[in-house]
Amino acid sequence: MPPVTTDAPLLLIADDVAATYPGAVVPAIANVTFTARAGDRVCVLGPNGGGKSTLFAVLTGALPLSAGRFELPGGGAALVPQTDRSRLDFPVSAFDVALMGAVARLPWHRRPGRADRVLAAAALERVGLTDLAGTTFGDLSGGQRQRVLVARALVQDAPVLLLDEPFRGLDARSADRLTALLDELAGEGRLLLMASHDIEQARAWDLVLCLNGVQVAFGAPDQTLSMEVIERTYGAALIPLADGAGAAILPAHHHHDHR
Amino acid sequence: MTLATSILHTLAEPFASPVVARAAGELVLLGVVAGVLGTWVVLWGLSYSAESLAHAMFPGLVLAALTGIPLLVGGAAGLLVAALAIAAVGRVDGLDRDVAVAVVITTLLGLGVLLGLSPRTPKGLGSLLFGDVLGVGPRDLVLAAGLGVVCLAVLGVLHPTLAAIGFDRSSAGARKGTAADVVLTLLLALATLIAVQALGNLLVVATLVGPAATARVLTQRLAPMMALATATAVVTALAGLYLSYYAAIAAGACVTAAIVVAYLLALLARAVRDARPRAAAAR
Question: Which of A143, A245, B57, B141 is the most buried (most CB within 10 A)?
Answer without folding.
Answer: B57
